[in-house]
Amino acid sequence: MRDPATMRAREAKRATGVYYTPSDVAEYIVAEALRLHGGRPDQLSYFDPACGSGVFLRAAFDLVTRRGDLPAVEATRFVTERLFGSDIDPLAIQGACFVLLERLFTHTERFEPAPFSVWSCIRRNFVVTDSLRLFVPGATTARLPTVGLFDATPSTPRESEAAGAARIGQGEAEEGMELGNLLPAIAEGADIIVGNPPYAPLGQRRDGAGLKDRFASYTEAPSADCYPLFVEMMWRFARRGHSAAGMVVPLSIAYHSREQLRACRKAIVASGGRWRFAFFDREPHALFGEDVKTRNAIVFRQEAADGSCLGEPAVVETGPMRKWSSRTRAGLFRAIDFTPLECPRIADGIPKLGGAIASHAFELLQRSLHHFSSIPRQVGSLAPAAAVEAWDGHRVLVGGTAYNFLNVFRPYPGPATTKAPWSESSLHCFEFANESDAHFGLAILCSRVSFWLWHVEQDGFHVTREFLTTLPFGRASFHDRQRQELASLGSQMWAALQSDPVVNVNGGRQTVAFRPYKCDELRDAIDAVLLASAGLDSQFLRYLQQFVRSVINADMTDIRGQTAVSGTVTEDADT
């Protein structure tokens, strides 16, 4: 990351959304897709519509050969007849073919025919094209064609590259291309779809009318992304009736309110099948490594004859936002499990839930008819400098970003000396009618329930006004005695928070945060009132306590992390 010689390459990859998949991520996705399919791995077809250098197809080969000592001939048949890919980058396609050829060399001491013939047949299964223009008009359960290495004349490299060039030319046309015209063996869809689509803008396209007909998530909006259309390929390129798919995509698939993502989530439900979502944070460590700090989701789809299929609502299973450190990554994928949603309404977002207790609690809270917006008199924003200069009034402030806690506090006389100019990032400002209401609202915002809901519904960093105002606790959620109790607890909470302010300087700007780590008893009491009002019991309170501990201590093997909880984690230079 510090080498200036690689800076241009890294910037180019970011600009085009090219994030090469770590091998352990590819192996996990392929292994889980195979498990979901349940078929014999060496008899299935695999297609990666954004194959890059072939890491997913290489993982498929490794898993198939690892499960049994395939003879050289059978291993070669598998590579040349079962693995397929497409990519817009011709160099990536060439790399993928040589990667698979190398794996064959590694697996077998010698094989016939000659390596050049094997490479030529591998290359025939890869096309240089824009996968967004591909489509499968209709998939059946017909067997794969048997034309392959041992009963066809391989193409020469010149013929193969000429075909690739022709396919690029075809890609400039506005019409779509049938997948079967380029890859006849999977004309009716592949058994396994895997991949890591480009994380790049969709941009202006001349074939917009055709894309709109084929993809529910296509839009001409300037903010539109490529990857939602690739998510749709998980069923549009799959063999009907019995298939499995897995992709790694940005976390925005779960939380973003942009209409394109809402359309994609609606299409997911309408596509049928069983969907599973695993979510990954970017701190302490990121799924794609430290030079690509992104939050991600790994998405699986299973379609079986005895399950939900096209035309029936999908079954949706989810999981919590997972954190890990370099010490624990080796066991990260072994620990992943999934929680069925009680009601798969995911158009507004896919909740990140861990366990049946959490799923039930979330569904119950979602039914609430009350919102936090009923408590304050006014909702606006305030500059951090104003929070210390004009600290009179019945206000409660909330930071616009968070990590291990929501930064909730009252206006206060700031530190005697400042380390740097105050941050220019606005705070959410809630104006209340009186001090009792202000402490009542502060108690709700400081609760573990609110922090947990933020983790479940949001992106793990930004704290939006919409989220805060729609918290499922309003004035009418509580009777008079409960409101008075929460106001008293809120007053005590603010007194305790003031004893441990943390002043940070990032990007030359100062921020302040108030950590609730020394307020466990107060938070227990606040949570107990909130849960009682929602009809939840002490079992969920114990879940919340464990949840907060697991969020703060991502690596339970790190003794320092258990004995000294860190403060705020700042991710952007200007926050």
Overview of this protein structure:
The chain has 575 residues and is an alpha/beta fold. The chain has 2 domains: 17-266, Rossmann fold; 368-563, no CATH class. Helices cover 39% and strands 14% of the residues. The strands form 4 sheets. Strands 1, 2, 3, 6, 7, 8, 9, 10, 11 and 12 form a 10-stranded mixed beta sheet that branches. A 4-stranded antiparallel beta sheet has the order 13-16-14-15.
Count the domains: 2
The radius of gyration is 27 Å
Derived from helix and strand composition plus strand pairing, the structural class reads alpha/beta
Number of strands: 18
CATH architecture of the largest domain: 3-Layer(aba) Sandwich
Q: How are the secondary structure elements laid out?
A:
Layout (H helix, E strand, L loop, with lengths): L6 H9 L7 H15 L8 E3 L6 H12 L5 H11 E5 L2 H18 L7 H10 L1 E3 L5 E2 L21 H15 L5 E2 H4 L9 E4 L12 H7 L12 H10 L6 E8 L1 H4 L3 H12 L3 E7 L15 E8 L11 E4 L2 E2 L16 E2 L15 H11 L11 E5 L1 H6 L5 E4 L9 E2 L17 E5 L3 H12 L1 H10 L7 H5 L10 H18 L3 E6 L2 E6 L5 H15 L3 H15 L6 H5 L12
Parallel strand pairs: 1-2, 1-6, 2-3, 4-5, 6-7, 8-10, 8-11
Antiparallel strand pairs: 7-9, 8-9, 10-12, 13-16, 14-15, 14-16, 17-18
Helix pairs in contact: 2-3, 3-5, 4-5, 4-6, 5-6, 10-12, 15-18, 16-20, 18-19, 19-20
In short:
Helices cover 39% and strands 14% of the residues. It has 21 helices and 18 strands. Strands 1, 2, 3, 6, 7, 8, 9, 10, 11 and 12 form a 10-stranded mixed β-sheet that branches.
